[in-house]
Amino acid sequence: MTNGHDQMVPPRYHVILNWDGDHALTMAEAPMDAETFKDILYGDLDHAAVDCVFWNGSPGSTAFYPSDVLEFKGETLDQGFKYVTQWRSITNARTMIKRGEDPNQIAIDGARQHRIDVFFSFRMNDQHQDDADMPRLKHDHPEWLLGDKVPAWFNTSWDYTHAGVREHRLAMIREIADKYDFDGIELDWQRHAHHLPVHEAFRRKYVLTDFMRVARQIVNEAGQRRGRPLWLAARVAASKEGCMHVGYDIEQWVHEKLIDYLIPSACAEMDPSIDGQW
After folding, report:
1. Do 213 and 256 touch, CB atoms closer than 8 A?
2. Is residue 148 within 8 Å of residue 155, measured between CB atoms?
3. Per-residue pLDDT reduced to its tens digit, 113-171
4. CA distance 124 to 172
5. Fewer CB within 10 Å of terminal CB in the chain, N or C?
6. Dihedral pair phi/psi, residue 26, rounded to 5°
7. With the CA atoms of 122, 123, 128 and 134 taken in that order, what torsion angle do they form, in degrees rounded to the nearest 10?
8. Measured between alpha carbons, how far is 169 from 165 in angstroms, rounded to an integer?
9. From CA 166, how far away is CA 96, in angstroms rounded?
10. Kind of pairing, strands 15-20 and 50-56?
11. What pTM was estimated for this model as a whole?
């Protein structure tokens, strides 16, 4: 399988800034206006080496943007907000949408104004035990979660061995690819890094490879429709051994040209000691 734009060379960025959506949306009192939001994302970058921003508009299983696939963050809360920051991020995003604005589109517009590329960054699993990021789908399908098949911290993570999980997660990628003019999409597999039962991950690594093949097809088709590539990045473990342990067959991903950018990192955060010469 080829990536659909083999003759196109992905941009070579100097510095990529990954913006945590929750964090960015807490940095001004509610209601935050669009110009303030753009200034938070890009205002300090005009004289920096950053030439690409990865905007994380989905905390993990919910969304900070109007979506037909993901529930809005906090939609299932029935006991109120636990933290001021939780209330502020949700309220700021919700207020923008009520005004007819879209946080994703604001992120894109700001990037264009500052001549910076912008990717949408998906966290393929994110575990903060955050009740605001627990959609009805997880409550309705507990069998789709990893449960006791992984260390306790990860027990409400999606289990990608289930077709329903894969279809749901591919649908969220397809929605972003079809609806928005991002320069690319990042699949952040490291926040957090269990997506298969821990004792089966190496043997069942083909599950995630098949998922990546479909994700590649989705971005290819979106790029063809709009007349310019939609790049695909994947954030993975910091070593080949670490990748295989959790089911990322990165050598196969590279061999099949399933990704344009391979980003090695620690689980949930960057590791400055990583040797980039794989």
Report:
1. yes
2. yes
3. 999 999 999 999 997 768 889 999 999 999 999 999 999 989 999 999 999 999 999 99
4. 10
5. N
6. -95, -5
7. 60
8. 6
9. 30
10. parallel
11. 0.94
